[in-house]
Amino acid sequence: MSWTGYPPPPPDNSGKTAAAVIVSLVILAIIGVVSCYCAKKMRKAIVTELQAAVAPPAPAYNVVHQVWAVDAPTMEKFLQELAKEKPVRFTAQQLCSFTSNYSTTLGSGGFGVVYKGQFPNGVKIAVKVLKWNLDRTAVEQFMAEVGTIGRTYHINLVRLYGFCYDHLMSALVFEYMENGSLDKYLFSDTKAIEWEKLHEIAIGTAKGYRGTPGYSAPEFMLKNFPITHKCDVYSFGMMLFEIVGMRKNTKVGSNESLDWFPKHVWGEYEKGELEAMTLSCGIEEKDRVKAERMCMVALWCVQDAPDARPPMSAVVKMLEGGVEIMAPPKPFHYLFSVGLNVLKPPSNSGNSSDYSTSELGTNSHWYKDTTPIMAKYEIQIASSSS
């Protein structure tokens, strides 16, 4: 045997090694299958036990009551969608989990029931479960709320986090308002808010109202008519009426003249009886001037012609005081007329462009600035030459 300088090659045991590897893989595969089967069976037993432990209430509007755990990937995606300020599409099972199987009812109405809930991260929500047998108007409202509020985030607007829509239910998921909405205090039998605070709320809402949806202006009823931010001005005016009257604008009762409060306000203004009207609404004498000012602003805001309504910047200035509000024309012609002419601004000189863009900048149609103009004096500074 000759010496090569290399160690001798190892014995050939490749056959034994291959056999050992194959046996090991088979054993691991068997263990994996058995583990998966046991885990699946255990998970099914846990879910069954949880479902049995929760006694679901009577079904409301075909709501699917089921305990559902939101896993980490789903929650992470949800948080990402919130960061993008987009409405999230939830499943019925998720809403059931968020509301603890619909255990706390906040209120109910013609469109459905509102439940209190909470996201896994602690954010409180209000889930409005809509009746499934919705008519066309309700369906359009559902689409409008998802399509408009869902794309908007504003400090003065309740936020829409998401929605649910499938063959069993439709629901809207809103931000939860801890203290309720304004109408809860306006239409209460007890005086919950001082009138001075209501005046502050009106001004604060005016400052943040532009671009937010609200009560419908008359142009919403007409096809092929442009919808602008002046619709929001109209809606704000309707809200001012409710603040002054401490009641809903429409309230059918024994006195027909009071059935629609905005029309009643115009009638009292036309007769020069605004002071008596505000006192009849329970407004104290010390707040009377502000209340009359709010009525005047409201009458300007609800003018039929969009161009005749003041911009929100002018509304804020008129509410804050320091300016003389001009006499508003008679509103609500659209209730008694047919066609588009009623939505054109009134003309005092035969010219239909009384509310032109240049004049809008001066706000001269809505108020006159009464702030005293300070006299200007030229001050000469004598410098001594060195």
TrEMBL record:
Listed InterPro entries: Kinase-like_dom_sf, LRK10/LRL21-25-like, Prot_kinase_dom, Protein_kinase_ATP_BS, Ser-Thr/Tyr_kinase_cat_dom
Regions that span the bilayer: 20-39
Membrane topology summary: Single-pass type I membrane protein
Cellular location(s): Membrane
Binding site for ATP: 128
Record Gene3D superfamilies: Transferase(Phosphotransferase) domain 1
Gene Ontology CC entries for this record: membrane
Domain of life the protein comes from: Eukaryota
Primary location recorded for the protein, binned into one broad class: membrane
Record-annotated Protein kinase domain positions: 100-386
Pfam families: PK_Tyr_Ser-Thr (PF07714)
Keywords for this protein: ATP-binding, Glycoprotein, Kinase, Membrane, Nucleotide-binding, Serine/threonine-protein kinase, Signal, Transferase, Transmembrane, Transmembrane helix
PANTHER family named among the record's database cross-references: RUST RESISTANCE KINASE LR10-RELATED
Protein name per the record: Protein kinase domain-containing protein
Record organism: Nyssa sinensis
Lineage: Eukaryota, Viridiplantae, Streptophyta, Embryophyta, Tracheophyta
